[in-house]
# Entry
Amino acid sequence: MPYNAFMRRALLLFAILTIFSCSKIEQVIVDGNTHPTDLTIENTVIENYVNKLYISTIGREPTTAEFDDNFETLREANLSQQSREIVIDKVLEKAEYFNNLFKIESANILNGVDTAMINERYYLYKYFLMNASGFDSIYIGYEFERLSVLKQALPDLNAGLITNTELYMHMVNNNFFDEINMGTENFVVAMFQHFLLRYPTGSEVENSKTMVDDGNSTVFFETGNGKDDFISIFFSSDEYYTGQTGILFNRYLFRNPSSEESVNYSVDYINTDDYQSLQRTILSTNEFIGI
# Structure
C-alpha cells in the first residue's frame, strides 16, 4: 500500500476512536418494564397435568373454575415442586377424592360392592338380629357388627377418623369379602395378591391359615392367634407398605418401582403412615406429568 494512502486510513481510524471516546453512553430504562414470565414449561404440559391429576384421583375432569385456578398456580410458579403439591393437596381434600378412592378399592377388593349394597345388607342383618335368638343371634350379631364398621368406613375416612390402612382392614373383615374368597386358604391368598401383589409362599400359606383358624402361628415374624390377629399383623408389616408403593406406581405410572424406588418410597410410608403423602410424592413427579 502507498505511504500516503496508509497515512490517510490511519488518520481516519484515529478520528473515529477519538469521537467515541468522548461520547457518553447512557442506560435507557423503560418505566414499567418487567422480566417476561419464564415459559420453560409449555402451557399444554400444565393443561394436561391438571386434567390428568383430576381424572387419576377423583375420576373426572376439572371444572372450568378448578382448571383456571390450578393452571394459574402452576403457571406462575413455572410448575415448581411447591406449586405441584399445593394443587395436589387441593384435590386430595375433596370429598370426591375419598368417594372415588372407596370406589376404586371396592372394585379391587370387594368386586365393586358400593355403599348402597352395604346399607341394604346392613339393614337386612339388623332386621334378622331383632328376630333372632340363641346361636343365631350370636352369629348374626357378629356379622351385623362387621357390617356396621364397613358401613361407617367411608364417612370416617372422609372425616379423617381412620387411615387408608384401617379402611382396608374393614374391607377384608366382612361377609362380602368372605363370600368372594370362601375358605381360609382363599382368604389368605387374596390378602397377599390384593395388597402385596404376589402369591404367598408355601410356609406363608400354612402359617397364615393356622393363625386365621385360631391356632398359634407366626406371620411376618409376629405371633398371633385368630383372624383379627392375622389382619392386624398383615397390615402393620413392612411388606404391606412395600406392596402399597407398588400398587400406586402401577396405578399412576403404569410400571413397577425399581428396587431403589421401592425401598425409598416404602420407608417414607412406613415412617409416616400417610397414604396421601405417598400419593403426593408420586403425583408430583416429572414422570407422572410427562416431562
